[in-house]
Amino acid sequence: MGISLAALINYNQTYQVAFSNIANETTGKVGAQYNAIEYYFRLKKTNEALAAENAELRGMLQSSFEAPDTSKVFQIDSLLKDTLGRIRKFEFLPAKIVNNDISEQNNYITLYRGAKQGAQVDMGVTGPRGIVGKVIMVSDNYCRVMSLLNRNAKVSAMTKKDFYTGLVDWDGEDPRYVTMHNVPKSAKVKVGDSIITSNLSGSYPPGIMIGTVAALQGDSGSGFYELKVKTSTDFYNIQYAYLVNNMIWAEQKQLEAKTPKDK
């Protein structure tokens, strides 16, 4: 059968052309499949080489070499004008958060900005949406912040609407909420009202957001509310913060330290 088919093809030009076309088509399909497979593996190797090259190039970019931020932002505090119309300024120092605890009773945050970049103990720390804590320790390039989510943290606060003052602290439970104490029941406070820093805190300018009222608490025998406040800062996701430098607070503290003591 094979010999007959060969003879037929060899002596019949029509069959020879047809068979050649079939063979070429078959060979072409096999070749195409082989080329596709070869191209896949070549492409994979090419992509791996490009990825390695990109990694090397990215490592040479300036953004790969990180240093503490030395920039400054100035904010005018229009609530503290004196009789001459002069205004008090605060200096804001951007800093990257490199460590953030939220699961302990006393939580701390580490910022990548230290004494060499202007960080000082007692500076307030804010985030994009509200306060974060206060600086308690400083090294050359880092500082340690007592988070608002720390049982020892106390912040002077006030209601934005009627300026009733009180202290804000954390009960060590839900990281989303803090408590404002000693708000008189005569205050017209409602759920959703804003709680801000007061003018009694040297660490922060007045008017920085702390959070919004989530619930009013207090027993009937007390003349004061305890406000459950949902924090403006999302401590689960915060990445950057600002150190707040009250540039004339040292003068205020020095003067207050000279005040005669009652005997």
From TrEMBL:
GO BP of this protein: regulation of cell shape
Stored Pfam families: MreC
Domain Rod shape-determining protein MreC beta-barrel core: 97-244
Keyword Magnesium annotated: no
Key words of the record: Cell shape
InterPro entries (alphabetical): Cell/Rod_1, Cell/Rod_MreC_2, MreC, MreC_beta-barrel_core
GO cellular component: plasma membrane
NCBIfam families listed in its UniProt record: PRK13922.9-3 (NF010532)
Family recorded in the similarity comment: Belongs to the MreC family.
Protein name (record): Cell shape-determining protein MreC
Organism lineage: Bacteria, Pseudomonadati, Bacteroidota, Chitinophagia, Chitinophagales
